[in-house]
Amino acid sequence: MAKPKETFGKKEQTKKKLQKRQEKEERKLERKSNSQKGKELQEMFAYVDEHGNLSSRPALPGSKPAARAEGADHWQYNSKDGDTAIRVGVLEYFDTAKGYGFIRDTASKERIFVHSTALLSPVELADRVSFVVQRSPRGLTATDVKLVKDTETK
User: Fold this and answer.
1) Which residues contact 116 (CB under 8 A, 6 or more apart)?
2) Which residue has the higher pLDDT, 140 or 153?
3) Are 102 and 86 in contact (CB under 8 A)?
4) Separation between Cα atoms, residue 131 and residue 28, nearest integer Å
């Protein structure tokens, strides 16, 4: 039997394969030497600052976190006095087709959003209503909206 002849192309391919193996081995050794194993625990920590950015330093004492509690869809609104009392206002605008409107609070003169699902009794435009204010991601929202009879006062 005759020995198979090795062509120039085959020699070049085997040289390339050997060179790739050597480069791969060099990269492997470099990764091992630069390994981060054995770092102290403090060096591996990452902190979140008040703006939500990652940093290597902990937040300053007294700074407020930017994140809110997970699963909190709304917050209870606290007025300037700190109470969450029932408020009284006038229904300024309400679109029954779209199912929302706005109440003008008589005490603070704020314009507060109200959705039709928050109505406990049927209301019409310019009716006096009582309601509880909650803060939503988009602003103030009225809940538990009831029609106030003229004899009732706050």
Assistant:
1) 96, 99, 100
2) 140
3) no
4) 68
Q: CA 108, 113, 114: angle at the middle one, nearest 5?
A: 115
pTM equals: 0.46
Angle at 68 between CA 62 and CA 70, to 5 degrees: 140
The DSSP letter of residue 119 is B
Helical spans, DSSP H, in the chain:
8-33, 41-44
Rounded mean pLDDT, 124-153: 86
What's the pLDDT score for residue 76?
A: 45
What does the alpha-carbon distance between residue 127 and residue 147 come to, in Å, rounded to a whole number? 7
As a whole number of angstroms, the distance between CA 95 and CA 117 comes to 13
CB 91 within 8 A of CB 123: yes
